[in-house]
Structure formats: C-alpha cells, structure tokens
Design brief:
The protein is mainly alpha-helical. The protein contains five helices and two strands, in the order H-H-H-E-H-H-E. It has helices at 16-40, 43-46, 69-83, 90-107, 115-136, and strands spanning 87-88, 145-146. Helix 4 (90-107) packs antiparallel against helix 5 (115-136). The longest helix has 25 residues, at 16-40. The radius of gyration is 21 Å and the shape is flat. The model has no long low-confidence stretch (mean pLDDT 82).
Length: 162
C-alpha cells in the first residue's frame, strides 16, 4: 500500500502525494477485503486458538560493532551518489555493488547497540537492493536512467522483485 505498492496506477513515480493517495484508496480496499473474508468464516473457525510454535528465541551471539557510524554513513551516501545516482551504468553499478557487499560483510554479525547502528545496517541493505535492481534493469525508464541503456525496452514492462 502506498510507497510499497505495485499497483500500476502511478508507475515508477513515487511522489509523496501519489503514495499517500494510494495508501488511502488501497488501504481501504484491503480492509474491506479482510472484513469480507472474516465475515464469511464460521463462528467455529473464528474461535480456533492461534497456532503456537513453542519457545522461540531470537538470541544470537553478536560481536561488538567496531565502526564509526557517521563515517560509514558518509561512505554509503557517497557511494550511492557517485555510482547509483541520477546517471548510472554497468561499471558504476558494479563498483557500488562491490562496495555495498563489503559493507554488508563488515556489518554481518555485529551488534547494533544504537539506533544509528540499526539505521546504518538498514540503509546499507536497502542501498544494496536498489543497486541490484538498477543493475538488473537494462533499460532507462522514468527516474531510472542508465547511459549504457538510454532507451526504455518493452521487454522490461514488468515488475522486478529483488
């Protein structure tokens, strides 16, 4: 719904007003669909106890993070601006994916003791996904411009899931 929607209404245009409108319209449609399905269930089906998985632990041994979060954030921002910015191509995306992979490897298994460390990990993961999607899409469309593939391609009239 909204920013994460893939409904074909506004294409690749992720303007705030569009995603807010989609959030309202499609959020309401989803709520109606859930309510309709719930109303069709029998009272016996609704009374079933929830499934339990027993004891589940999310505890994992983590090593202390040994990094300067501000410096790593600047490194991430610089890489994305230089290589995954407005004009991109295979070579710049390859540089970006390489450095982003290195950053993810450095962060793997490290404890996130602060909000800034969690944000850095999330931003790095998201940046990696953006670079992977931009690498995979060998065309230019909307705000995604590759100078090595300057034209849109009908072959790419599809959704890309990374």
């Amino acid at each position: 719904v909204g920013e994460a929607a893939c409904n074909g209404i506004h294409g690749a245009n992720r303007l705030a007003s569009n995603s807010l409108l989609e959030g309202l319209v499609f959020g309401r449609r989803i709520a109606r669909s859930i309510n309709d399905r719930f109303a069709q269930e029998t009272p016996e089906a609704r009374a079933k106890p929830p499934v339990t998985l027993g004891h589940v632990s999310c505890e994992v041994e983590r090593r202390p993070a040994r990094r300067d979060v501000a410096a790593e954030t600047r490194r991430l921002q610089a890489r994305m601006t230089l290589d995954v910015g407005i004009i991109r191509n295979a070579a710049s995306l390859l540089r970006a994916t390489g450095e982003l992979s290195d950053m993810l490897a450095e962060q793997a298994g490290a404890q996130c003791a602060t909000i800034e460390e969690m944000e850095l990990r999330n931003m790095t993961q998201l940046a990696s996904l953006v670079a992977a999607a931009a690498t995979a899409r060998t065309e230019s469309r909307g705000a995604h411009y590759r100078d090595d593939y300057p034209q849109p391609s009908e072959d790419w009239m599809l959704n890309l899931v990374i």
